[in-house]
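If your schedule permits, I should be very grateful for your opinion on a structural question. The matter concerns a single protein, recorded as an amino acid sequence and a row of backbone structure tokens. Could you please explain, in whatever detail you think fit, how the structure tokens follow from the sequence? I set the record out below, with my sincere thanks for your time.

——
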Amino acid sequence: MNLYIYDHCPFCTRARMIFGLKKIEYTEVILNNDDEETPINMIGKKSLPILEVEKGQYIGESLEIIELIDKRFGKPNLVLEPNNDIENWINQSTSLIYELAIPRWAFSNFKEFSTLSSKIYFINKKQSLLGDFAILLKQSKEKITKINDQLEVLNSLINTENETVLSGCCSYTHIKLFPLLRSLSIVKDIQWPDQVSLWMNEMSKQSGISLHNDIAL
């Protein structure tokens, strides 16, 4: 099976997670960010991830891909109930995390930005939604302080989740949380609380998806 992705994309990370958690072989295909033709030909719009289930048969929503793979291959892994407190934390923190991560993605060497045109495409598209990246980067200190405070809140919520990750059992809350924390790992000066760090690194190991600490800006 081919999974078409961008490396930076948290929704693509969601889809990649289920393959890693279930130890299923698949082929990752990283598209240039300005390649509109390929995804439009597959699912009618420019959106990733896309799973080619069979030749000419595509699924283009991350949670639909996850549900299909989890049910089709072996015993389901996503058997736990959602954690409503963490779901609320995700809803409250997502915008702030993206404001920190997205400008840094633009200046990182992800394969989807390997051409100048793909990088410019991404910058223009995201700046039209978020505003000038230079201004956002200048606001980093204040935003990092805020997210560090919110990570302390998450630390108190995630303590009971660490044992479940070690057991190989997950919930859709985990599928949503890890890509968000991975996105944040590209930001320098984040103060990772002990339990959050433990959970994030174990999930990285279980899913086979590396964090971005080594390229943090």
Remarks:
- The beta strands are 2-5, 27-30, 50-54, 57-59.
- The chain has ten helices and four strands.
- The mean pLDDT is 93.
